[in-house]
Amino acid sequence: MKIWSGVCTIGYMSILFLNSSCSVQKNATLLSIAKESYCIPPQNTTDFNYGISTNSDSILKANVSLKSRFSEASILIMNALRINDEVHEIVNKPNKNSLESMVRLNTLKQQIDNRVWIANSEIDALSAELDCEGERVDQIANFVDNANSGKTTKFTVASIVIGAASSIATVLISNESLNNGVAIGAGVLGASLGFATLNPKGKKVEMSTRRNLLQNVWLNQNQHEISPFVWYMLTEPKFSNSGKTTLLQNTKERWLMYQFDENLTKANKSVNFSKGGIYHADDLHARSQMINQFQSVVRSIKQNINLFLAELNTAFD
After folding, report:
1. Which of 48, 92, 150, 289 is the most buried (most CB within 10 A)?
2. Rg, the chain, Cα only
3. Beta partners for 125?
């Protein structure tokens, strides 16, 4: 009984520091913020709604006459943008210096530029969505981090107060049995608070990811979340440096290695590839990193388009 009395004495002295922490934890455990992402585009404005052939060998064979001037990636881009005829006419123009030819070439170039502009717009739109979503997740992650940090601070302060109170109590309390009870009580509570400080993962949020672009990458599925042209660029091996694996595959392999330590089972169960759920701080930080990585991959698509434009300019000479 005297030991229990000591525990209660110390507990009462620390309750002022813990009461608010327990209340916040209770209210924040299932905190729901940003139920729907404000980064979702209002509508799909893509201009490339037609199907794009994925038979690269047949496309390259049909345009073999262009291989002396254009890379394989550029020829595939022409086909995806449906500007093969325009490019063939530019290359095969016998006299490019006549007024009639110059007018025609300018018309063809304008048609090509319009298609390229639309393609770049689709890349920019997806990149902007990813940038917005990354910022959104960072804000939520900071909220959870701050909540955990505040909880840890309160536990640390309470632990210090308990230690100080215990020292004072052992001096002021003359009853040896009660004194021992206070000391034991302080030790028990201090150890409990220390353990709680080392495990501050109680804070979490419920987040909706109804439109989850990370899921598109992980499952290699696209239900019109990503435009057909951009998806083609991401899933055609010839647009990667190796020419053997796709940009999407390479991205997935990097995620598996750096975010999930090569644990495929863990990755498949991750909330980051679902339509939403409970996110801890680690999940949010992983999500932010994967979004940023995917955004960089999307932006890199423009390198192939810029190469095509550079090769096209030489065809006008």
Report:
1. 48
2. 31
3. none
Two tokens at 38?
């404000």
Closest C-alpha among 203, 205, 210, 204 to residue 38: 210
Residue 11 burial by Cβ neighbours in a 10 Å radius (0-12, 13-18, 19+):
middle
pLDDT digits (tens, 9 = 90+) for 47-101: 566 678 889 999 999 999 999 999 999 999 999 999 999 999 999 877 767 888 8
Instruction: Give the pTM.
Output: 0.75
Q: Which tokens belong to 250?
A: 């390479």
- Reading the block at residue 96, the tokens are 């490019």
